[in-house]
């Protein structure tokens, strides 16, 4: 059974959703028969590298809010991450466009390392404060998950896997996906946002027990990130 997941590496709810889903998968009796496929999604295609600018200022400017408001929002998200067993260090976060990171993800998927790449990218951005748009950073992440440095470098210095990224984004548009994370289980059950592990587990069990072609909303919407800084 396949689980398709759309996410953006710079979406804080996507990493939390990933961990909650994994906690459900551990408890799912038939987890060895689950294939997880990660898909690219860009929250802000026009974002540019902004060295020296912190995420608090960036979000405050985009939302027309105060720095204090932005910091409080990040405190709440940091606590959500902690509850999921994750460490977020927004003070270290580097603002950059995620498109290159998505091409890196697509390369990793070619080698069956999509999940490992997604985890490495999330950890690099949210925990370690690394620049996920920097080629050297991505090469090191690639080496860490088992990719060859030469191949990663060649891909990053070209337009390779751009079509795959664009196809994922187009597919999301066709499904009407407006925010991430977004999960589709067995082409039937749709789960939007960061849901509790129990919601994912229930959807997995339900999808396993019956196969129908129609996509059904399984849950009420949870926390998502949307294009335009709606996070």
Task: Tell me the layout of helices and strands.
Layout: E1 2-7, H1 12-27, E2 35-40, H2 55-63, H3 67-83, H4 99-110, H5 114-127, H6 135-145, H7 149-156, H8 162-175, E3 182-185, E4 189-192, H9 197-209, E5 216-217
Parallel strand pairs: 1-2, 4-5
Antiparallel strand pairs: 1-3, 3-4
Helix pairs in contact: 1-9, 2-3, 4-5, 5-6, 6-7
Task: Offer a few descriptive terms.
alpha/beta; 9 helices; Glutaredoxin; 231 residues; single chain
Describe the structure.
With 231 residues, this protein is of the alpha/beta class. The protein has a single domain (2-217), classed as Glutaredoxin (3-Layer(aba) Sandwich). The protein contains 9 helices and 5 strands. Helix 2 (55-63) packs across helix 3 (67-83), helix 4 runs antiparallel to helix 5 and helix 6 packs antiparallel against helix 7 (149-156).
The gist of it:
The chain contains 9 helices and 5 strands, in the order βαβαααααααββαβ. The protein is of the alpha/beta class and 231 residues long. The chain has a 5-stranded mixed β-sheet, with helices on both faces.
Which range best describes the helical content: under 10%, 10-25%, 25-40%, 40-55%, 55-70% or over 70%?
40-55%
What's the story with the biggest beta sheet? 5 strands, mixed
Strand order of the largest sheet: 2-1-3-4-5
The number of domains? 1
N- and C-termini, Cα separation: 31 Å
Low-confidence spans: none
Counting DSSP E segments of at least 2 residues, the number of strands comes to 5
Supply the CATH architecture: 3-Layer(aba) Sandwich
Radius of gyration: 17 Å
The CATH fourth-level homologous superfamily = Glutaredoxin
**Shape designation:** globular
Topology-level CATH name: Glutaredoxin
Average residue pLDDT: 94
CATH secondary-structure class? Alpha Beta
Individual helix count? 9
Q: Give the SSE order as H and E letters.
A: EHEHHHHHHHEEHE
The chain-level structural class is alpha/beta
Tell me the strand percentage band: 5-15%
């Amino acid at each position: 059974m396949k689980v398709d997941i759309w996410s953006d590496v710079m979406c804080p709810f996507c990493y939390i959703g990933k961990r909650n889903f994994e906690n459900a998968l551990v408890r799912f009796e038939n987890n060895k028969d689950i294939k997880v496929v990660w898909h690219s999604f860009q929250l802000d295609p026009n974002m540019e590298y902004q060295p020296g600018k912190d995420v608090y200022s960036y979000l405050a400017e985009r939302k027309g809010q105060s720095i204090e408001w932005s910091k409080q929002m990040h405190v709440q998200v940091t606590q959500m991450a902690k509850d999921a067993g994750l460490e977020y260090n927004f003070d270290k976060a580097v603002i950059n466009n995620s498109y290159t990171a998505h091409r890196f993800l697509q390369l990793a998927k070619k080698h069956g390392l999509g999940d490992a790449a997604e985890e490495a990218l999330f950890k690099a951005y949210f925990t370690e404060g690394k620049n996920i748009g920097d080629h050297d950073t991505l090469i090191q992440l690639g080496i860490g998950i088992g990719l060859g440095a030469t191949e990663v470098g060649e891909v990053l210095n070209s337009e390779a896997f751009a079509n795959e990224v664009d196809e994922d984004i187009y597919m999301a548009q066709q499904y009407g996906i407006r925010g991430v994370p977004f999960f589709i289980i067995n082409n039937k059950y749709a789960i939007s946002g960061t849901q509790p592990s129990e919601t994912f587990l229930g959807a997995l069990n339900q999808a396993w027990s019956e196969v129908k072609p129609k996509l059904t909303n399984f849950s009420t919407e949870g926390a998502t990130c949307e294009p335009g800084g709606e996070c």
